[in-house]
Amino acid sequence: MRRVALAVSISGILLLAAWVQAPASPVRDATGPTASEVDAADQTARSVAPVARQVDQEADRLRQHLAARVPFTPPARDPFRFKSKTGSEPFSTGSREKGSDPVVLKIPVSPPIAVPTLIGLTEDSVGGVVTRAAVLSMGDDMAIVKPGQTFSRFVVRSIGPASVELVDVTSPTQTVTTITIR
Fold first, then answer.
1. 117 and 137 Cβ atoms separated by less than 8 Å
2. 155 and 136 Cβ atoms separated by less than 8 Å
3. Strand order through the sheet with 176-180
4. Which of 11, 48, 62, 109 is 20 to 30 Å apart from 91, CA to CA?
5. Would you say residue 174 lies in a domain?
């Protein structure tokens, strides 16, 4: 029984290998293209020739344009260096040596705070008590929130008839932002 299983396995592997190695399309004769294929290729060449000439002419025109360009001349003033009030030498703090480049201090700029957009307001009156909810969105997130609930990094402080007050809980000063419907 083992010999039969082994023979079936080997023949299956050989059959799989032959299938993988077989060409995807039938092999053509060595006789060459048929007359209809030659005619189709000739017709295609005739229809493409005018477009090819246009492309060649445009390429030649662009080569001439690039060859005729004036080389870049650096500007007379340096927008990154400032003259002193007397105009004799660049502005300095007095602590640098003559001929060395000035020290440029870069102050980091914090990105603007992304604030949610107020999409809409809803009201629900239950037993004479009006409960308001706000529909907020920021990026791909959208939520319906009530006072005291959190959206992104903001806590909803209050919801008025046309605006919502949000408190940024990640800010050390607990920044309050009021947004209205646009």
1. yes
2. no
3. 150-151, 154-159, 163-168, 176-180
4. 109
5. yes
How far apart CA 140 and CA 170 sit, in angstroms, is: 20
Length of the chain: 182
Average pLDDT, the chain: 83
Q: Which of 161, 138, 159, 162 is nearest to 149 (CA)?
A: 159
**Boundaries of domain holding 151:** 117-180
pTM of the model: 0.40
156 close to 143: Cβ distance less than 8 angstroms: no
What's the CA gap between 167 and 157, in Å, rounded? 6
In a domain, 34, yes or no: no
For 18-67, the pLDDT digits (tens) are 888 877 766 666 677 788 888 888 888 888 888 889 999 999 998 888 88
β-pairing verdict for 150-151 and 141-145:
unpaired
Q: Record the tokens describing residue 30, joined without a space.
A: 């060595």
74 located within any domain: no
Q: For the chain, what is the domain count?
A: 1
